[in-house]
Amino acid sequence: MAGKKRCQFTGEQQCNSAALRIVGSCPHCRHDYCGNHRLPEHHACTNLQDCRQQAFERNKAKLESERTVAPKMAMA
Question: Where is the AN1-type domain (predicted)?
């Protein structure tokens, strides 16, 4: 039987806590983390900037698709 997966955080000192099974896996860097390091901001995720840029682009496209233009206002 395999041992428990450990947190893969390597900061000032390595974390020895057990990794969370479902929510501990980072979808951006594909590593497993404990409850304290599971958020991308807390484990210095290498893909955090790409994640933020993608979220910015999705939000920008959504806002532009919902923008009210002058012809729509004249018809109302």
Answer: 7-50
